[in-house]
Write a structure and sequence with these properties.
Blueprint (H helix, E strand, L loop, with lengths): L15 E3 L8 H8 L6 H7 L4 H6 L5 E3 L5 H10 L7 H5 L4 H4 L8 H10 L5 H32 L6 H12 L2 H10 L1 H36 L2 E15 L3 E10 L1 E5 L4 H17 L8 E3 L4 E4 L9 H20 L10 E4 L2 E4 L19 H10 L10 E2 L18 E10 L7 E8 L8 E2 L2 E2 L6 H17 L1 H5 L12 E3 L5 H10 L9 H8 L16 H9 L7 E3 L4 E3 L5 E4 L5 H10 L3 H15 L27 H18 L1 E3 L4 E3 L1 E5 L5 E5 L8 H15 L2 H20 L12 H15 L2 H12 L17 H15 L2 H16 L27 H15 L2 H16 L1 E2 L4 E2 L5 H7 L11 H14 L6 H14 L11 H4 L1 H9 L3 H17 L22 H12 L17
Parallel strand pairs: 10-22
Antiparallel strand pairs: 1-2, 3-4, 4-5, 5-7, 6-7, 8-9, 11-12, 13-14, 15-16, 17-18, 19-20, 21-22, 23-24
Helix pairs in contact: 4-11, 7-8, 8-11, 10-11, 13-15, 15-21, 22-23, 22-37, 23-24, 23-25, 23-37, 25-26, 25-27, 27-28, 27-29, 28-29, 29-30, 29-32, 32-33, 32-35, 35-36
Length: 1035
């Protein structure tokens, strides 16, 4: 008999009964770990069935355990009785290679023996699948713990050969004496394995029974024949007691078993039949048999298209679906959810229809939230298109373009030094596998983005149909009522975040004490600080996680309640029922909305092309420009005003509340477009636009421009109050960018309150300096230091100088001098020290020289000089440019030239050298500046007009050289080049710094920066260089 007293730590907090009242000293540390919002404390303790004192007393011994929570111990005693476990040949029989070769497979033997003895399944195929499932459960939970035990065994057997040590350890772990002591050390591990294995067994027994009972229906409905020959049970996450989709293969045909009500699927099939009859489409839904709490679904095979006509029909149908699914509030229609079956796309999982929950809301009524809602409610929310609403996922898993051969960094867990005592788990890059969503013709995949016209055509067909038949959908007894009283899954969080927690919970220290494992999952309470209605939901999430499941919730489209995995009511969740939300969406369908959705589709499907990296887009101006015409002052002002009004037209605006905003479009490394509301920073945010508007108003006194500026200032304050998520030291994307922009604007508008707010933004970031690991001008303390110094020069506040010195010391203390390198490993550079202004030595050395100018401390000067010297070691004489170490192999493979931009390459490095020479002429050799100017003239213009990586940023080297050397020729050349670029781009308009032909409003990559560049060209002495963080001198 096992000693229950030695296994009490396997009891969760709610199962513990306190004996001595003590433990409150743990309160502060415990709450700090889980970041429990104060408003949740009562709910938190209620969930654990304790008051505060009882709760913390439960964390310490002694305590008693509720008798009903010890059922797992009875099961475990039965498991132990199966020692010795059955022979390895039996255990390994029928296993896939990866499982058979697992170094700790033998540990699962006695669990498998117990489950096989206990289960009541006659079908050998289902029994074999249950065996694999049991092994999977044992190994996923025990591997890290067993690895730690192996290391201890190695430590106790010093000098033993590593391979022999491993073999002796494996012999030891399947002895009863060792197992019993192991149980007492890690009681929770055994509880988790036992409880999950029992649930899996019960589920497989359920499948076995239902297959026998429903087999005649399956033969009739799905035309399957013969015996069951295989079963795949790892299709998707497990929910509601280790239940997951199962694929059953018979001698003829396959069928899917789904552990949920398939009423929604039946109604969707009915809807498609209705649509097919009305507009002569050929939409198809997988056939189903709905059996209440479970159901059977037709297996859809992948079928190639016969010809181009089939392909076009396929994408027209996908366009039709994109509209329909958006109207039905569908999400998660990603690459795994679509089967290309000839010319017909078939969606194989409809549980994510009717998703009435759209994520975090702020209820501020502001423009930022309005833009966020527009994006969330758009066709992008279906996940069909390669358009994201955040930067979290860099992989393209969208239904239309998602494909394999994408690298997922550090996503694959594998063993090194296998079958030795030095064995360890390492993370390696994972290459995604292709799915069946992209059609093929003659064995070759088509290129989905080529079929944008067909997709748009299909979208418009369905949009027109629904718009003309709104009443058929929304009337009493109409189409939407077909979906009444049928459960639909409600997805409240990204399921991947649950997976991360479950994986983390298998670490050894979480498997010793159930309270500590609970504490890990208790971190979900933190979300309540942003979403108050999660107070009643988090306990149910934690309950499912403790049971090894991804949390599952459901709703009915005609009800406001939310239900858990046991179909118990959780809370009144929706302000509006889902059917009310759908009806409202249908009601609001009009020509304006249709164009908006089409615009989202076009932009998300655009093929990313970085024109500024293509040699053929570059224009060589390193020649005699005598015949070129200069752009006039009048033209510069006219075009700057034109840009301002284009930006205004692109905006979302609330005139009454002086609120304004824009959609920002960015791109991930995998080529997915990201659509988000603009924040209030400099790089791509509203305050970058404000700087342009402030300077344009100062020059033109245009009242329309002034109103835009006033709206942006007000909207920035709203953003800080309602939407900002923590502090960030970045001078382009964080608090320091806000500080710079506020102070810049205040110099023009004479708003002293803005100056105070600017200084406060800097002071907030003192504590972030030591945490900074980015270091550079764009994101790190180098850029922050320059902003603080610029404002210090105006205000002479000692705190600003102290802030700058702290930044400088942080940079000096984090220099890397390994392998003959000298510089900083910035986030953009990875394991390389970069050259360049934005993320490399050029920018950081300039920042250190600025600090040396103010402090006279030689360490900053010496460090800057060494950084410049190392950077010059990367200079390539043949190319007359500095080597870009980022993704170097990939750039060479694709034939891309070295970049020639402000951010990376000669123009930015040359500008840095000019700024450094202004501070300390002895540090810089003029040859660097001359080389950079020559390279910029040769290959720095064309492909993009933006500041970061385009012509208007590159021209800064000429404007600053004109001032440094008092040489007006550089200014003349700049004006001639700009005039020629405008002539060449006349039909296309300005080219923004995003890899498609669209306008974006932001400063560093968009129109406002281009407009500001025109004002710099107008008067480079009095219009400050923002790329040098200069401030206006306004009298």
């Amino acid at each position: 008999m096992l000693d229950k007293k030695r296994m009490k730590k396997a009891a969760y907090i709610g199962e513990r009964r306190t004996v001595d009242i003590k433990g409150l000293e743990k309160e502060s540390e415990w709450l700090k770990t889980i970041k429990l919002p104060i408003k949740c404390e009562t709910s938190y303790y209620n969930f654990h069935k304790k008051n505060k004192t009882e709760f913390y007393s439960s964390l310490a011994v002694p305590y008693k355990v509720e008798r009903e929570s010890e059922k797992w111990i009875e099961y475990l005693e039965e498991v132990v009785s199966f020692f010795p476990s059955y022979c390895m040949e039996e255990l390994e029989n029928g296993l896939p290679d990866e499982m058979r070769k697992h170094p700790f497979l033998k540990f699962s033997g006695f669990f498998v023996a117990y489950i096989e003895n206990k289960c009541k399944i006659a079908n050998s195929i289902i029994r074999d699948s249950l065996k694999k499932k049991t092994i999977e459960i044992v190994l996923k939970n025990s591997t890290k713990v067993l690895l730690e035990q192996l290391y201890k065994f190695k430590g106790n057997n010093e000098g033993m050969d590593s391979s022999l040590c491993y073999e002796e350890f494996i012999k030891k772990i399947i002895t009863l004496v060792w197992i019993e002591e192991f149980i007492y050390e890690y009681p929770l591990l055994f509880r988790v394995i036992i409880e999950e294995s029992i649930k899996a067994m019960n589920y497989f027994q359920e499948v076995d029974v239902n297959l026998k009972n429903d087999f005649d229906k399956l033969k009739s409905k799905f035309n399957i024949k013969g015996e069951l020959i295989s079963l795949e049970s790892n299709a998707g996450d497990s929910h509601k007691g280790q239940k997951q989709v199962i694929i059953l293969k018979f001698e003829k045909g396959k069928v899917l078993y789904k552990p949920r009500n398939l009423g929604i699927d039946q109604s969707f099939e009915r809807l498609l039949l209705y649509i097919n009859n009305k507009i002569e489409t050929k939409l198809y839904a997988a056939k189903v048999i709905n059996c209440g709490n479970y159901g059977w679904q037709e297996y859809i095979p992948y079928i190639e298209c016969k010809d181009e006509k089939d392909v076009k029909e396929y994408y027209t149908n996908l366009g039709i679906y994109s509209c329909l699914l958006n109207v039905l509030l569908a999400s998660d229609m990603h690459m795994e959810n679509i089967i290309a079956s000839g010319s017909v796309p078939v969606f194989i999982d409809l549980e994510s229809l009717f998703q009435g929950y759209k994520g975090i809301t702020y209820n501020s009524g502001g423009i930022y939230e309005k833009i966020a809602e527009d994006i969330k409610n758009s066709v992008l929310s279906t996940s069909l298109f390669p358009g994201l609403t955040n930067m979290r996922n860099s992989r393209d898993v969208s239904g239309i373009t998602g494909d394999g051969n994408q690298k997922v960094p550090n996503a694959l867990y594998t063993f090194e030094n296998l079958y030795t005592a030095d064995m360890k788990i390492v993370r390696k890059d994972y290459i995604m596998q292709s799915k069946n969503n992209i059609p093929k013709v003659n064995g070759k995949k088509v290129f989905p983005r080529k079929y944008i016209n067909e997709i748009l055509n299909g979208f418009c067909i369905m949009y027109k149909f629904i718009s003309e038949n709104k009443e058929d959908f929304t009337k009493k007894g109409g189409i939407l009522e077909w979906f009444y009283n049928m459960p639909v899954r409600t997805i409240l969080r990204d399921t991947a975040s649950y997976g991360v927690l479950l994986k983390a919970s298998t670490e050894p220290h979480y498997m010793q004490d159930a309270a500590i494992r609970e504490q890990l999952f208790d971190r979900l309470w933190y979300m309540v600080s942003e979403m108050e209605n999660f107070i009643g939901i988090v306990p149910y999430e934690i309950y499912d996680l403790l049971n090894g499941d991804v949390p599952y919730f459901s709703s009915f489209i005609n009800k406001r309640e939310l239900y858990d995995g046991k179909n118990s009511e959780v809370c009144i969740y929706y302000e509006k029922t889902i059917v009310e939300q759908v009806a409202e969406k249908i009601k609001n369908m009009d020509a304006i909305d249709e164009e908006k959705q089409k615009d989202f589709i076009k932009k998300s499907m655009a093929e990313p092309i970085k024109r500024w990296e293509l040699k053929e887009k570059k224009i060589n101006y390193n020649k005699n420009l005598n015949e070129f015409k200069e752009i006039t002052d009048g033209e510069l002002i006219e075009k700057a005003l034109d840009i301002a009004f284009i930006i205004e037209k692109m905006s979302y605006r609330d005139v009454d509340n002086m609120d304004i905003g824009w959609i920002n479009i960015n791109i991930t490394s995998s080529g997915q477009w990201v659509f988000m509301p603009m924040d209030n920073t400099l790089y791509e945010g509203t305050l970058g636009i404000a700087i342009f508007m402030a300077q344009l108003f100062h020059i033109t006194k245009n009242d329309r421009v002034k109103k835009i500026l006033d709206h942006i200032i007000n909207s920035s304050r709203i953003f800080n109050k309602c939407y900002r998520n923590g502090n960030d030291i970045s001078a382009f994307n964080g608090n320091l960018s806000v500080a710079y922009c506020y102070y810049y604007i205040a110099c023009i508008t004479k708003q002293d309150d803005l100056k105070k707010e600017a200084i406060n933004e800097i002071i907030k970031c003192f504590a972030l300096i030591e945490k900074d690991s980015k270091y550079d001008i764009i994101s790190g303390c180098a850029g922050a230091m320059i902003v603080a110094l610029r404002i210090y020069e105006k205000e002479k506040l000692s705190e600003l100088l102290e802030f700058s010195i702290k930044c400088g010391d942080h940079l000096v203390n984090n220099i890397s001098e390994k392998n003959e390198k000298f510089g900083w490993y910035t986030a953009a550079g990875g394991d390389s020290v970069l050259a360049g202004m934005s993320h490399g030595n050029a920018g950081i050395s300039w920042a250190l020289l600025e600090l040396h100018k103010q402090t006279g401390r030689d360490k900053y000067l010496e460090c800057a000089q060494k950084a410049i010297n190392y950077e010059n070691s990367l200079y390539n004489v043949e190319d007359n440019n500095w080597t870009d170490m980022r993704n170097r192999e990939n750039r060479i493979k694709k034939g891309f030239p070295e970049p020639v931009n402000w951010c990376h390459g000669a123009p930015g490095i040359g500008l840095s050298r000019i700024l450094c020479k202004k501070i300390n002429s002895g540090v810089i050799d003029d040859i660097d500046i001359r080389n950079a100017i020559q390279k910029t003239l040769t290959a720095g213009f064309g492909g993009s007009d933006c500041l970061c990586h385009g012509s208007l940023g590159n021209v800064e080297i000429l404007l600053n050289a004109a001032n440094l050397y008092r040489n007006p020729q550089y200014l003349t050349e700049s004006r001639k080049i700009l005039k020629d670029l405008i002539v060449q781009n006349n039909e296309k308009g300005w080219i923004c710094g995003v890899p498609q032909k669209i306008f974006v409003a932001g400063f560093m990559t968009g129109l406002s920066g281009i407009g500001y560049g025109l004002l710099r060209m107008l008067d480079s002495k009095n219009v400050p260089c923002v790329l040098a963080f200069e401030l206006p001198e306004v009298k």
